[in-house]
Amino acid sequence: MEYPLATLITGNRPLHSLVGVCLHEWMHSWYQMLLASNESLYPWMDEGFTSYAEDLISNYIKSKGLLPGFKAEEQSFQETMKGYREFVASGREEALSTHADHYTTNMAYGMGSYTKGALCLLQLRYIMGEHTFNNALQIYYSTWRFKHPNADDFFRTMEKVSGLELDWFKEYWVFTTKTIDYAIEGIESEGRSSKLILMRKDLFPMPVDLEIKLKNGKSIFYTIPLDLMRGNKDLLDIKWEVAKPWHWVNPIYELSLDIPKSKILSVVLDPFHQLADIHPENQIYNSEPE
Questions:
Q1: Residue-level pLDDT at 287
Q2: Confidence (pLDDT) at 290
Q3: Which of 221, 225, 201 is nearest to 271 (CA)?
């Protein structure tokens, strides 16, 4: 005997809220019902993945002008990122590995399961590259629908499709509350070349993307893989220069540039604002006025 599934959505709310909750509950059809993941053990695999899809669709609707009064974000997930940073600063964050019933506060459950769960997918997209990530997410669904996947099943699928090692990311993101914080320390002149100095200021290691803007109006994009990845993101969307990997235990990284310092206008770390860095204000270097 088949039983229909119904979701009750309350009224008396603004249009933006109504659209958001409808999208969210619709996405649950995939990330909870058809995949049948255990929401008590892995709430972030349900609520978080659903929130990720909700954010993408909502931003698309806004970009088409279908949600009056709301503009699409230039880079999606910025509000989600802002909420995450503020909650980390509160000191009340708990690891995603916490059972849904055992969080100390409702806020920690909500921010972990919904917000940090959504950012889990955003960070994987950042690590793998958008094309590879989207393909991996589709394969995850088609492989594990109706099979009750756990966290290991999900990350193993991401690894198989991308060809990258991702166990380090799983351990840090799911089992700890360590945070990401990368900064540009400065540029040193070396005659006709220069040396860019970067610093990992917190304990969560990640690959790093850079945009070097030149005074002639051109830009050069670098991706610096993490050595733990055993590879680098796909390079389909942008013409990236792949730098030597950053050894994960070293807090300092030096990138040699075949460009004199005098020709560099600015350097932007994470130019597309996709890294869940808790202090984005230290990710920009501007040259001194001449």
A1: 86
A2: 59
A3: 221
Instruction: Please report, for residues 21, 190, 225, 235, 256, the alpha-carbon distance to residue 126 in angstroms, rounded to integers and kept in the order given.
Output: 26, 32, 11, 12, 23
Domain edges within the chain: 15-175, 182-286
Q: How far apart are the first and last CA of the chain?
A: 77
The domain made up of 15-175 has a fold known as Neutral Protease; domain 2 (1.10.390)
Residues 170, 134, 177, CA angle at the centre, nearest 5°? 25
Q: Which residues contact 171 (CB under 8 A, 6 or more apart)?
A: none
pTM score: 0.94
Nearest residue to 7 (alpha-carbon basis) of 20, 17, 21, 19 = 21
Q: In this predicted model, what pLDDT tens digit does every residue of 87-105 receive, in sequence order?
A: 999 999 999 999 999 999 9
Kindly state the average pLDDT of the residues 189-205: 95
Q: Region 168-176: what's the mean pLDDT?
A: 98
